Amino acid sequence: MSETVQENKLVELTYQVLDQKSGAELTAVEFPVGYVHGRNEILSGPIMEALEGRSSGEVIEVPIEGDLLYGERDESLVITDHLENVPEDYREVGTTIIMENDKGETKNFLVTRVDEKSVTIDGNNPLCGRDLLFKLEILTVRDATEEEIELGGPIEPEPEIENMVELTE
């Protein structure tokens, strides 16, 4: 009988985030992500709850509103400016711009639109305001070691020094 996801179990999984309406993949984590259940909440509470009691090899789908994870969309974070006021490095859709306020706090904005006259940036998380579907594949469930429980995740192996190449030129 395989182990089930519960407190102090090391869990490794991969996941995709899909748009519920279109089915389009919005993001994916294809490399195994490891955590100790109940010690490190790498995903939101409702997703962690849905994993509880599941076994390795299972694929589960968890619908969730993006606003619950990323907050409600704030239209005041959408800014359009004249093209000539925007540095050329920021004139490509998909570019991330880090802005800083008077208090020294930073926020990421994403260039979402560029035309011949203007550039639009958006400081909202791209997933807020969407109905999302998290599709998770559980790869491994096992007892976590004491060290993994303390750290909240898997222990990365130390590199073998004899296999490292030193560049000293």
TrEMBL record:
Organism, scientific name: Candidatus Thiopontia autotrophica
Enzyme Commission no: 5.2.1.8
PANTHER family, per the entry: FKBP-TYPE PEPTIDYL-PROLYL CIS-TRANS ISOMERASE SLYD
Listed name of the protein: peptidylprolyl isomerase
Family per similarity comment: Belongs to the FKBP-type PPIase family.
Keyword set includes Glycosyltransferase: no
Keyword Cytoplasm: yes
One Gene Ontology molecular-function label: peptidyl-prolyl cis-trans isomerase activity
Keyword list, A-Z: Chaperone, Cytoplasm, Isomerase, Rotamase
Substrates-to-products reaction catalysed: [protein]-peptidylproline (omega=180) = [protein]-peptidylproline (omega=0)
Primary localisation category: cytoplasm
Location in the cell: Cytoplasm
GO cellular component, one term: cytoplasm
